[in-house]
Design brief:
The protein is an alpha/beta fold and 343 residues long. It contains nine helices and 18 strands. An eight-stranded parallel beta sheet has the order 2-9-8-7-6-5-4-3. Strands 10-13-16-15-14-17 form a six-stranded antiparallel barrel. A two-stranded antiparallel ribbon has the order 11-12. Strand 5, helix 4 and strand 6 form a beta-alpha-beta unit. The protein is elongated.
Length: 343
């Protein structure tokens, strides 16, 4: 019995093709847990649709991916002086976000990240004059800019990329390739029209792999069902049941990512009110699970265990049967499945 990721393969691949057509020269991204699919599977998909490059998060991911993918490997985490050396093939390309970093990679293939309004990392405009001498000792694959998802100042991603293009041009730096992220396809086309001598390559992960939500579904198998009456004690902490119903043991626990949630940025009164309500219920040990049965998300009976979760299903719903599968609304980037099934 397992937590299974079901993939509608034909639909999933049709979505991939639509993204590939919108973004010529795409750089697929495979980092973290492989967007819920795993590095092996995404490397197979990238090989199948024939791109020349794959972006990974870290040097450790690149070391694993080198045996899964035969093209270039772009490491997105910037090089830092003194970092642990990881043996990588010559087809690995390192991102760099400082002049010192460029100087520390003599002979290497590099992409230089510029500082965007994200303010995460990148070369500053003031450092551009220092790059001339530094890039003589590396194989420059291009520049890169990582853009924010939202904007509050009225500018656009095109504006920000264009401003950096002009800075790089004014500094007489090579502009043959610019790697970008979080741009729409028409924005990319506009930039290509504005700067025809530069090849713009979009680094895309989430939109490529997870853009069609209906192409994938997690389901947890029911392992046990126990009838309980109000006040019965159960579980590790011997809590009392809130009413008559069923304790349902379903595949999927903390080792799969069930019950783990990343912080969210809340905008507007309604999302904030819902957040307050959820926090209030949690103080009363009332936590909504991601598992759905009979059309409703069901409550955790107690915090999820390592490999299973125990849910409470009240009497007013039909009892699940061992072997049934419950749909689970899980975040792909924090979930580890037991098995993946194409259908």
């Amino acid at each position: 019995m397992a937590l299974t990721l079901y993939v509608d393969t034909q639909r999933w691949r049709a979505h991939q093709q639509s993204v590939l057509q919108q973004f010529p020269g795409i750089v697929p991204v495979c980092k973290g847990n492989g967007y819920g699919f795993g590095h092996e599977r995404l490397a197979e998909e990238v090989t199948r649709f024939g791109t020349d490059i794959l972006a990974v998060g870290t040097t450790y991911e690149a070391a694993r991916a080198k045996d899964l993918f035969g093209g270039d490997l772009l490491v997105l985490t910037p090089f830092r002086l003194g970092e642990e050396p990881v043996p990588l093939p010559d087809r690995a390309i390192r991102s760099v976000s400082s002049v010192e970093g460029v100087r520390g990679l003599v002979g290497a293939r590099v992409v230089i990240e510029v500082m965007s309004s994200m303010k995460r990392h990148g070369i500053s405009e003031e450092d551009l004059p220092k790059l001339h001498a530094a890039i003589e000792d590396v194989r420059l694959e291009g520049f890169a800019i990582h853009l924010p998802l939202d904007r509050a100042d009225g500018t656009t991603g095109v504006d920000e990329v264009s401003a950096w293009m002009e800075r790089l041009r004014a500094a007489h730096l090579p502009l043959h390739t610019m790697f970008v992220s979080h741009l729409k396809s028409d924005d990319l086309a506009r930039l290509q029209q504005m700067y025809p001598q530069t090849r713009f390559r979009a680094r895309i992960g989430t939109r490529l792999w997870l853009g069609d939500h209906d192409a994938t579904q997690y389901r947890g198998a029911v392992l046990d069902v126990t009838r309980v009456s109000k006040g019965d004690r159960f579980g590790y902490r011997q809590q009392k049941t809130a009413g008559d119903g069923y304790l349902v043991v379903v595949a999927g626990g903390t080792s799969h990512g069930v019950g783990l949630e990343a912080p969210k940025a809340l905008h507007g009164m309604m999302p904030r009110a819902k957040g307050v309500a959820r926090a209030g219920l949690a103080t009363m040990n009332r936590n909504l699970s991601p598992f759905v049965w009979a059309g409703k998300q069901r409550w955790f009976a107690e915090p999820p265990h390592m490999q299973v979760s125990i849910l409470f299903v009240p009497n007013d719903a039909p009892a699940p049967q061992v072997g049934d599968e419950l749909v689970a609304h899980l975040r792909h980037t924090t979930t580890q499945f037991d098995r993946l099934l194409d259908h």
